[in-house]
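During data preparation, a discrete fold description was generated, and the record follows.
___
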Amino acid sequence: MVHIANGVNKQKKMKKIIQISLLALAVLFSSCSEKEMKVYESSSDMVKDAQSCVETITAEDLKSAVENEEKLYIIDCREENEYDSACIKGAVNVPRGLAEFTISNAAPERRSKLVVYCSNGDRSSLLASVLPKMKFSNVVVLEGGFENWKQQFPDLVELEPKSAQHETKVAGPPSGGCGG
């Protein structure tokens, strides 16, 4: 009888070990599976979600920071033609559609304050919500965007700025073809 009882206890222990192992594997695989993906009914829902998780700066606070010569980057994420018509003085144009690919050139110091704006705050909120994933640790969105800035500080608007992409670059001598 003792042999049977020991055999039953061993089976119970083995069964418990298998259950715990399976549970551990399930937890491990579920944590390594795809990250939860949010699904939105509309782009405005996506913007509202982004706005709920980004910090903002008022136009007055940005003006004060500029006047106090604080170390910051001002990024205009509107399209190039919007930027070329007018922008905040000192802003660099990084269109939203290219931002993840070009922002590091415009703002190489990822710990410095990065103020992002568009016309009304929608595109800049979307951009600001992803920049922390690229190790930008101090990103804020200009409240009300460029339209708000223009109304409050028209004297601090640069009219017809020239984007870096419009600069004329001197071409080198013709190569004569592939490698020649």
Remarks:
- The chain has seven helices and seven strands.
- Helices lie at 2-32, 43-52, 59-67, 80-85, 99-106, 122-130, 145-152.
- The domain at 43-163 is CATH 3.40.250.10 (Oxidized Rhodanese; domain 1).
- The radius of gyration is 27 Å.
